[in-house]
């Protein structure tokens, strides 16, 4: 131990007490500070901001997460309705209002945890990010193929990714590290159930669902807000997932299969299509539910909150240059247009800060001037300078001497409002608390029971193979979670570990086409 280390080892707590880089002991590393247990997150969350901003800067220049991606251009066509009702009843967002209204889009699909040259057959959530170039500026709908997530509080995100990424000493990923974190985060049980089933390896990017994951709001002309969830449902191409054996067969000879599948489909004119659906819920706590609607680890039941179609997206043009368009594409959950708004979803509020902060670091402070990121609507700001600025966002006739607002000397002016502002009201203590209705296992059990027999068998085999690499106490915690979700679920995992059953692994197989090998699945 160096003298410097010795001098730094004092203070409050034991040697293994968690601190921040100011040396402050961290008393709560599980919950951001919010107005009430489910209210909005405050900007003075110093520990969270220090933690997430350092996390955002961990990789140069590859994305920290969603490193490997593929993308395409297309168009979104609005239905003018939400289900059978006029969409204006719920939102004043212009891109949805008129039947047949078209908005250009760019979509980036990705794997989440693995690096930029990793195989596309690995078990991993898939990113599904859509940039709408609307007349009111850009709207980014940033999500995954799975409709839920591992955690519900953003302060845990850097730790989660560290646990899923390679060991900092060996540089090898470890199922023991993965399940060490997950077994101490019971809210992840639902996501683990999906991830280790065939849903954890989509056959390709065209034949997978997408979801905004977070809870957002729609706001109408009167300023009334409702909670919404966004879902992309494949149309003509359907949904297909891979078993571990099929993924191994493809990976043996092709680790770029999903990128090429998307590229070749568009080149031959087989344009993939998705329908955008929303679930709508009145704003509020909804005490009649056994979960909190702002909890990202939960699905909203479709029988109570049906999927309502609002439009269709078609991808019809491949990028002209991968780096310029796919690698430099930058998305953020805070990029909303008028009529779309934030909910108090903690993960959404944490992501909204983190995503744009990451882009400013990774691509640069002027990343929004790059053609792939620039809105197709007019831009006029008083922001200036920074690395790689190549133009000034100046309005026609603007006094070039005035780069501030307000001004009476010919500068920019505030825009008039298009409708009444949405002004939710809060009256609660500022606390660090998890939401009251966690129900970490109910939906995981329901999902297990709704899987087809072959999906359950694949799930059990995959979990047994992964958990067999873990310490006994980690295995016991996970089996306990699965048992609370469904007694049969826990029993089968335990029996499979004891018997040594695990998913098939093969190598040296002939190159296979993932579209032919995949298993059909119905939406959930």
From TrEMBL:
Q: Where is the composition biased (Polar residues)?
A: 14-40
Which coenzyme or cofactor does it need? Answer: heme
Does the keyword section mention Iron? Answer: yes
Keywords, A to Z, come to: Heme, Hydrogen peroxide, Iron, Metal-binding, Oxidoreductase, Peroxidase
Task: Identify which residues the record assigns to the active site.
Answer: 66, 144
**Basic and acidic residues: bias regions:** 414-424
**Region spans: Disordered:** 1-40, 404-424, 505-524
One Gene Ontology term of the biological-process aspect is:
response to hydrogen peroxide
- Top-level division of the source organism's lineage: Bacteria
Q: Where is the Catalase core domain?
A: 19-413
GO CC terms, sorted: cytoplasm
List the catalysed reactions: 2 H2O2 = O2 + 2 H2O
In this chain, heme is annotated as bound at 355
Q: Give the E.C. number(s).
A: 1.11.1.6
- List, alphabetically, the SMART domains matched: Catalase (SM01060)
Instruction: Reply yes or no: does the keyword Metal-binding apply.
Output: yes
User: Example GO molecular function term?
Assistant: catalase activity
Which protein family is it in? Belongs to the catalase family.
What PANTHER family does this protein's entry cite?
CATALASE, CATALASE-2
Q: What does this protein do?
A: Decomposes hydrogen peroxide into water and oxygen; serves to protect cells from the toxic effects of hydrogen peroxide.
Record protein name field: Catalase
